[in-house]
Write a structure and sequence with these properties.
Oligomer: heterodimer
Helix content of chain A: over 70%
Distance between the termini of chain B: 53 Å
Distance between the termini of chain A: 40 Å
Largest interface: A-B, 64 and 81 residues
Radius of gyration of chain A: 19 Å
Strand content of chain B: under 5%
Structural class of chain B: mainly alpha
Radius of gyration of chain B: 19 Å
Order of helices and strands of chain B: HHHHHHHHHHH
Strand content of chain A: under 5%
Largest sheet of chain B: none
Number of strands of chain A: 0
Shape of chain A: elongated
Number of helices of chain A: 5
Chain lengths: 98, 213
């Protein structure tokens, strides 16, 4: 519960800070706008697929499924299609392959 | 007529919000999160990727780490609010519901208080309803499929890819990969915070340099 409230508060701040502080103040962080979202997503994705103890099989399935997701997205450019077909592909590999 | 317009314009958002929040409800329930807590998350956090991320990290990280990660993760929302600073003065609920999709839709429209409110509440509503149905589905339908949590990875990969295609730069991708693996191979216990902090410094230094050029 407290974890959820903490995250909610942090998220809340990202939406309300510009209204609490002055525009000038928030503008100082503009340099993060272009690069930071990509950096964070990269780190978080790696955090999920490269945990402390990597299992080779799980990792190889994940990398294949990521490749499938990327190819799907470059082909169709439909976020939902890429996300769900990519996930189904991974689930399929994990549950039904030898 | 504003309400009808809002319903019509949010239809594509309905499809993607429903699909994602439904998956979120299922995944959170299957990972053992309390159903009410799961629904509460969709009400008071209302941020898709962050909620998916929280399923994975909330039991592993300390409160301060959860705070920092959540704040930085959704840092981009600061710029949405910044853009709507004058437009949304003292409109608490609309500020709170300013998600990527809501922002994208409203930033293309003229100022219209009622229309903005309907769009905001409809999108929030789709998100909550999808979550509730996902939770209910997962609680009553027995199924065992390993790997459902991969939705988070493919979701991140797609957002990442869209960002890279839009900005046409891979520099931030390399910064992320470098920072992560540096601390990964150093065997640091809190890779997440260390690598986020390092990449923050790198981006800061780079922006200082390009300014002085």
């Amino acid at each position: 519960m407290i974890e959820i409230l903490t995250a909610a508060f942090a998220n809340f701040l990202t939406r309300f800070l510009p209204f609490i502080f002055l525009r000038k103040y928030a503008n100082r962080f503009l340099f993060l706008k272009d690069d930071f979202p990509v950096v964070l997503l990269t780190i978080l994705t790696l955090y999920i697929i490269f945990p402390k103890n990597v299992e080779f099989q799980a990792l190889s399935y994940q990398l294949i499924a990521i490749l499938v997701t990327v190819v799907l997205h470059l082909t169709f450019k439909k976020a939902l299609v890429s996300i769900f077909l990519g996930s189904f592909f991974y689930i399929f590999l994990l549950n039904y392959s030898l | 007529m504003n309400f009808k317009d809002a319903i019509r314009d949010t239809l594509p958002i309905f499809v993607s919000y429903f699909a994602l929040s439904f998956s979120f409800g299922i995944l959170a329930t299957k990972e053992g999160l309390n159903p009410y807590l799961t629904i509460l998350m969709s009400v008071i956090i209302y941020s898709g990727a962050l909620q998916f991320l929280l399923i994975g990290i909330y039991s592993k990280l300390s409160l301060i780490d959860i705070f920092i990660t959540s704040f930085l993760f959704n840092f981009r929302q600061l710029f949405y609010s910044l853009t709507f600073l004058d437009r949304y003065k003292n409109q608490f609920y609309k500020i709170f519901t300013l998600t990527d999709e809501t922002f994208a839709l409203l930033s293309k429209r003229k100022v219209n208080k009622d229309y903005e409110f309907y769009v905001s509440i409809l999108n929030h509503f789709y998100w909550i309803i999808g979550t509730i149905l996902g939770v209910v589905f997962a609680s009553y339908v027995e199924f065992k499929l390993k790997g459902l949590d991969f939705v988070l990875v493919s979701l991140f990969v797609v957002i990442l890819l869209e960002n890279i295609l839009k900005e046409k730069r891979v520099f931030p991708l390399f910064v992320g990969v470098f920072s992560y693996f540096l601390f990964y191979f150093l065997g640091v216990s809190n890779i997440l915070i260390f690598s986020i902090f390092l990449s923050f410094i790198i981006i800061l230094l780079k922006s200082k340099r390009s300014k002085s050029d």
